[in-house]
From TrEMBL:
This protein's UniProt keywords: FAD, Flavoprotein
TM region(s), chain numbering: none
Listed name of the protein: GMC family oxidoreductase N-terminal domain-containing protein
Coiled coil: none
SUPFAM superfamilies membership: FAD-linked reductases, C-terminal domain, FAD/NAD(P)-binding domain
Length: 540
């Protein structure tokens, strides 16, 4: 990937043009400051990214995925049959928001209140709600809970299949929850049509919303740039060192601050490469320790288990010719067949072990989903029959893992260990979710409309059989967080103003700062972190 020339200095250097980084860079530049935004990937101005539904092809065709993804895998997972689970991360403007399913979920209000209760002043739900509202343009306009004029357009899914609508009613009755109008408003508990960060056939990543045609000469966006480390002088971050096309090193200086927004893996990796992290680990790799901090700890992620049910009303066939015909029809006749997410509904419900908030999420899509997993880097074949896939999802994992350096080489992939299923409670909650889905699919309202369960299937009829198979089927929702934990104790990497402890002029602003994961898809929260970080820096 060609790298153009990079300016020698700026007021602010933001590393990583992902969900939070694009937001932060644009907001800082709007103050008149000179901002340099560095991205390792390339431009997102490609149909593969901008046309929302094509992400299904990107994820299923390795040759396409390689163009936009870092290609990371976990280390072998001891509690998941030694599997090396893919850790998809966008290597492109917009970051993972350019390769995700576009589900717009803020999480539960209680999540942010728990951050504040742990000492993160300024991060309660009441504190962050203005940042959520500022970033979005909700289809119903400005309300008490929603924003109507922000850069990210948020719309409900349209043309929902009768299979999904039937499941929603059955599940609501079985689980004793409501069919919701808006799960991002007053209450999250229930099941609803999914909201997506897409509109009129266009994906609204942070790059689209905040960088397209920004018109600010003081905002410089450089792609194809590999950052090797943060440059420290006398306990202060003064810039970054990049690797040029020739392999040489170049230092770019920041007059005010450096902000890492390189994501849950990239920000933690860069801190460690800069001598900020677990001292013993860094010394073992010959890296001089600048600050001994628990960088890379607290890694955790959402897990789901795809369950597939044969339903003619699901309408879609999981075959390449069917998908190609739909895409061609849109190109020739118009419409938005691939102009939206593949998901149709999302639900939040309490398991038997839940306390005050839902601890299970459901993802519903009218397509078959390859199984038992998609670990191997090959094109996986899906069942060609019309299928409704329901994914019970663990949203508050108790398991905690780590990110560590494989070497001091900044181009080497880090060692990613999410510790999937390490805590037995995580498996039990997923099993509760699978049983609840089966109960809903057996509901009288779906009588005669379900032709059978194709995956996991009748071979796993009871809880014991499901438990034995679960380590082979549970997989990531691609929502890792927490490696640069925000807080006020010794477990923290950054303080509530997102400043790296013990280092002046250096902050982290992305999903890595979450003390604990939010209850739902993480992209909306990552966007909010970008907005909230900008407010902290500009106002503070």
């Amino acid at each position: 990937m060609a790298q153009r020339s990079v300016a020698g200095q700026a007021d602010y250097i933001v590393v990583g043009a992902g969900s939070a980084g694009c937001v932060l860079a644009a907001r800082l530049a709007a103050t008149g400051a000179k901002v340099l935004l560095l991205e390792a990937g390339g431009s997102d101005r490609t149909t593969l990214v901008r046309k929302p539904g094509l992400i299904a092809a990107v994820h299923s065709v390795p040759q396409l995925k390689k163009r936009l993804d870092w290609g990371y895998y976990s280390v072998p997972q001891d509690d998941a049959l030694g599997r090396r689970v893919p850790q998809t991360r966008g290597k492109v403007l917009g970051g993972s928001a350019s390769v995700n399913g576009m589900l717009f979920v803020r999480g539960n209000a209680a999540n942010y209140d728990s951050w504040a209760a742990e000492g993160c002043a300024g991060w309660s739900y009441a504190d962050v709600l203005p940042s959520f509202k500022k970033l979005e343009s909700w289809e119903e306009g400005d309300t008490e809970f929603r924003g109507g004029s922000g850069p990210i357009k948020v719309r409900r899914q349209t043309d929902v299949t009768t299979a999904t609508l039937g499941f929603m009613e059955a599940f609501a009755d079985t689980a004793g929850v409501k069919v919701l109008d808006d799960y991002n408003a007053e209450s999250q508990e229930g099941i609803a049509i999914v909201q997506q960060s897409a509109d009129a056939g266009l994906r609204y990543s942070s790059s689209v919303g905040y960088l397209d045609d920004h018109g600010m000469a003081n905002l410089d966006v450089a792609t194809g740039v590999t950052v090797a480390r943060v440059v420290l002088e006398k306990g202060r971050a003064v810039g970054v060192e990049i690797i040029t096309d020739s392999g040489a090193r170049q230092v770019i200086r920041a007059e005010r601050e450096v902000v890492l927004s390189a994501g849950v893996f990239g920000s933690a990796q860069l801190l460690q490469l800069s001598g900020i992290g677990p001292a013993e680990h860094l010394r073992s790799l010959g890296i001089e320790v600048a600050e001994d901090l628990p960088v890379g700890d607290n890694l955790h992620d959402h897990l789901f288990v795809p369950m597939c049910f044969l339903m003619p009303e699901a309408r879609n066939k999981g075959t390449a010719p069917y998908f190609a015909r739909g895409f061609l029809k849109e190109l020739t006749r118009g419409g938005t067949w691939v102009g939206r997410t593949v998901f149709e509904a999302v639900g939040f419900v309490r398991s038997p072990a839940a306390d005050a908030v839902p601890d299970l999420q459901l993802h519903v899509l009218p397509w078959s989903y390859p199984g038992p997993n998609q670990d191997a880097p090959v094109r996986h074949k899906a069942d060609p029959r019309r299928t409704l896939t329901v994914m019970p999802t663990l949203i508050y994992p108790k398991s905690r893992g780590t990110l560590r350096l494989a070497s001091a080489d900044p181009t080497a992939a880090p060692l990613i260990d999410p510790a999937y299923l390490r805590d037995p409670a995580d498996a039990e909650l997923l099993l509760d979710g699978m049983e609840l889905v089966r109960e809903a699919m057996a509901h009288r309202g779906l009588g005669g409309r379900v032709a059978g369960e194709s995956s996991p299937g009748s071979s796993y009829a009871d809880r014991a059989a499901l438990a034995a198979e679960l380590p082979n089927r549970a997989t990531t929702v691609y929502h890792p967080v927490g490696t640069c934990r925000m807080g006020v104790d010794e477990r923290a990497v950054v303080d509530p103003a997102l400043r790296v402890r013990g280092v002046a002029g250096l902050r982290v602003a992305d999903a890595s700062i979450m003390p604990s994961i939010v209850g739902g898809n993480t992209n909306a929260a990552a966007l909010m972190i970008g907005e909230h970080a900008a407010a902290l820096m500009i106002e503070g």
